[in-house]
Automatic annotation (TrEMBL):
<dbReference type="InterPro" id="IPR003712">
    <property type="entry name" value="Cyanate_lyase_C"/>
</dbReference>
<dbReference type="GO" id="GO:0003677">
    <property type="term" value="F:DNA binding"/>
</dbReference>
<comment type="similarity">
    <text>Belongs to the cyanase family.</text>
</comment>
<dbReference type="InterPro" id="IPR036581">
    <property type="entry name" value="Cyanate_lyase_C_sf"/>
</dbReference>
<dbReference type="InterPro" id="IPR010982">
    <property type="entry name" value="Lambda_DNA-bd_dom_sf"/>
</dbReference>
<feature type="domain" description="Cyanate lyase C-terminal">
    <location>
        <begin position="91"/>
        <end position="161"/>
    </location>
</feature>
<comment type="function">
    <text>Catalyzes the reaction of cyanate with bicarbonate to produce ammonia and carbon dioxide.</text>
</comment>
<feature type="active site">
    <location>
        <position position="107"/>
    </location>
</feature>
<feature type="active site">
    <location>
        <position position="130"/>
    </location>
</feature>
<dbReference type="GO" id="GO:0008824">
    <property type="term" value="F:cyanate hydratase activity"/>
</dbReference>
<dbReference type="Pfam" id="PF02560">
    <property type="entry name" value="Cyanate_lyase"/>
</dbReference>
<feature type="active site">
    <location>
        <position position="104"/>
    </location>
</feature>
<protein>
    <recommendedName>
        <fullName>Cyanate hydratase</fullName>
        <ecNumber>4.2.1.104</ecNumber>
    </recommendedName>
</protein>
<keyword id="KW-0456">Lyase</keyword>
<dbReference type="InterPro" id="IPR008076">
    <property type="entry name" value="Cyanase"/>
</dbReference>
Length: 182
């Protein structure tokens, strides 16, 4: 276990919005007193990616399932059947978020979204940052006075809109991006 006693557990009010395996993973994590960083180091992923697996926001590989099963002593077959399917992303919480920390992240995008967009466009041109070919990292920094600061790094592949537009002109591509109502 890491050198702190802080441990993220499952908020039971979320259970109905999460995949069935989430409860088992969180229960095992709590029983073994493991942080997401501890689990990440065992399975070879970063801690944000591991947390995304627990919340059903990412698809697990066979290797992820085997290592999680081994570490958490959860039956591999049950995990494989549920975690290797397609995730139902974005449904874990309400929009706008009501949990204060998640709301602050949402608020950051509300307040700085256009600033981020302007700076990104100046650096990369007209395009979008991928949330699929993506990784995130959370670090803790302390200033000279010992005050703690959160450092969140978002890393996404940049896609130029011209290339996206050309892709969408392919006969089959519009099916990939058509609204659900069609």
């Amino acid at each position: 276990m890491s050198d702190t006693n802080r441990l993220a557990t499952l908020d039971l009010s979320m259970v109905s919005r999460l995949p069935p395996y989430s409860q088992a993973l969180f229960a095992a994590k709590t029983t073994k007193n493991l942080t997401f960083a501890d689990i990440a180091s065992h399975i070879g992923r970063d801690e944000v990616a591991v947390a995304a697996l627990f919340y059903g926001q990412a698809q697990a590989s066979a290797d992820d399932v085997a290592k999680l099963s081994e570490l958490l002593q959860v039956p591999r077959e049950a995990l494989a059947a549920q975690m290797m399917g397609f995730p139902d992303r974005g449904r874990a919480g309400p929009m706008p978020p009501v949990e204060p920390l998640i709301y602050r992240l949402y608020e950051i995008v509300q307040n700085y979204g256009y600033s981020f967009k302007a700076v990104l466009n100046e650096k990369f041109g007209d395009g979008i940052m991928s949330a699929i070919n993506f990784s995130a990292k959370v670090e803790k920094e302390e200033d000279d006075k010992g005050d703690a600061y959160a450092v969140i790094t978002l890393r996404g592949k940049w896609y130029v809109f011209l290339l996206l537009f050309l892709f969408l002109r392919l006969p089959w591509a519009h099916h990939c991006f058509s609204p659900a109502s069609e």
